[in-house]
Design brief:
Elements (H helix, E strand, L loop, with lengths): L28 E6 L2 E2 L3 E3 L5 E2 L1 H13 L2 E6 L5 H7 L4 E7 L2 H7 L1 E2 L4 E10 L6 H5 L4 E5 L3 H11 L5 E5 L2 H9 L5 E5 H10 L7 E17 L4 H15 L2 H9 L4
Length: about 260
């Protein structure tokens, strides 16, 4: 059996909650886990409701099949454990498809959005990337994110800075702006739409460098939930090949 990175799994796949189609007439309830502070993909609005690109995508999928969604915000640093433990059924919240995640704890849908990691500094910063990374000063990241993994990788390579872990990309950006951090590691999937929504920030920060190659997001499921993953992939393929996909991208400033 192969996962959605094309890798052959050596682990035994056990029967799960959504391994097979439910009995006819039984309501399908999907508990959607998400980061409440990752706009424009997932967030909580002033009315206390879940909103964002991924929320709209999952609503479209649920409507197609007649599923009922239950929205459950979760701390990003423990959200994979929540999926494993059955506290949630899927993660649709701008989660990067990585070999580590896809070959062990969770399996992904087909990719649906690509982005690149960036190191961002204040607009008046004149130091080079090497000087920033060897400054001994804090660089802000979201805890549990791929940005934090990039910080860990750079530290292992011998660069000398302090890692400042915060709860979201928004908080990491705030740390940069109020000078608690000399830089922060983010991704274009967050930063570009955030700047479109908050144009006054464009003059306050700049992208100093990009990190690595483009990466992609997928909807995360438990490995054993084969039926659920297949239905999500079927719906995603249909949506991504329809005019509605471009409309959603435009709505959330992701086009």
């Amino acid at each position: 059996m192969r996962n959605y990175l094309g890798e052959t799994s050596k682990a035994t796949i056990f029967r799960g909650k959504f391994s097979e189609p439910p009995p006819p007439g039984k309501e399908v309830v999907i508990v959607l886990g998400f980061d409440a502070s990752y706009p424009p993909f997932t967030s909580i609005n002033e009315a206390g409701e879940a909103e964002g690109f991924d929320i709209d995508v999952m609503k479209w999928i649920a409507k197609k099949y007649g599923w009922r969604l239950v929205f459950k915000p979760w701390d990003w640093s423990t959200i994979v454990t929540a999926l494993e433990n059955g506290d949630i059924d899927v993660i649709a919240s701008g989660m990067t498809i990585t070999p580590e995640r896809a070959s062990r704890k969770i399996w992904f849908s087909i990719p649906y959005y690509s982005y690149i990691h960036e190191i961002v500094v204040r607009a008046d910063e004149n130091r080079s990337l090497e000087e920033i990374l060897n400054s001994g000063q804090p660089i802000a990241v979201q805890i549990g994110s791929t940005a934090e993994k990039w910080a860990d990788k750079l530290l292992k390579e011998g660069y000398r800075f302090k890692k400042l872990c915060l709860g979201s990309y928004v908080e990491a950006l705030e740390a940069l702006l109020d000078e608690r951090a000399v830089a922060y590691i983010t991704d274009s999937a967050f930063l570009n739409p955030h700047l479109s929504k908050n144009p006054e920030l464009k003059t306050k920060i700049k992208v100093l460098a990009t990190l690595g190659a483009p990466e992609t997001y997928g909807i995360a499921t438990r490995p054993e939930d084969v039926w659920l993953r297949e239905k999500i992939n079927e719906a995603l393929s249909e949506l991504m090949n329809s005019p509605e996909w471009n409309e959603l991208l435009k709505k959330w400033h992701l086009d």
